Amino acid sequence: QVQLVESGGGLVQAGGSLRLSCAASGGTLSIYSMGWFRQAPRKEREFVAAISWSGGRTYYLDSVKGRFTISRDNAKNTMFLQMNSLKPEDTAVYFCAVRPGPTDEYDYWGQGTQVTVSS
């Protein structure tokens, strides 16, 4: 069974930075891409960023472009999200997820880590 463990969330003031990590392990792990999603209170979960595992191509939600950077360490099956210039509207539970193959959905999810940005 694939397991994803997020870390790095916390409380930060507006304008501050946080770095999230997501370590994948277990089962017959195959990764086509990994992504970050977030869910704020009373809102639906939304896509934040994704990275392809082989080529490192990145994708971002428009509102985080220029502030967030997604990266990966293939050898450690770990993904990162560097979040700078944080805003109160970035407050949410952040989840990482794995897409095993090009025709798959995001099949595996972490438990989430809370990010709170105070104004």
Structural description of this entry:
Strand 9 and strand 10 form a beta hairpin. The chain is globular, with a radius of gyration of 14 Å. With 119 residues, the protein is mostly beta strands. Strands 2, 4, 5, 6, 9, 10 and 11 form a seven-stranded mixed beta sheet that branches. A four-stranded antiparallel beta sheet has the order 1-3-8-7, with no helix packed on it. The chain is 0% helix and 52% strand. It is built from no helices and eleven strands. The model has no long low-confidence stretch (mean pLDDT 95).
Coarse shape: globular
Give me the Rg, rounded: 14 Å
**Biggest sheet details:** 7 strands, mixed
Helix/strand structural class:
mainly beta
Give the SSE layout.
Blueprint: E1 3-7, E2 10-13, E3 18-25, E4 33-39, E5 46-52, E6 58-60, E7 68-73, E8 78-83, E9 92-99, E10 108-109, E11 113-118
Parallel strand pairs: 2-11
Antiparallel strand pairs: 1-3, 3-8, 4-5, 4-9, 5-6, 7-8, 9-10, 9-11
Give me some keywords for this one:
0% helix, single chain, 119 residues
Summarize the structure.
The chain has no helices and eleven strands. The protein has strands at residues 3-7, 10-13, 18-25, 33-39, 46-52, 58-60, 68-73, 78-83, 92-99, 108-109, 113-118.
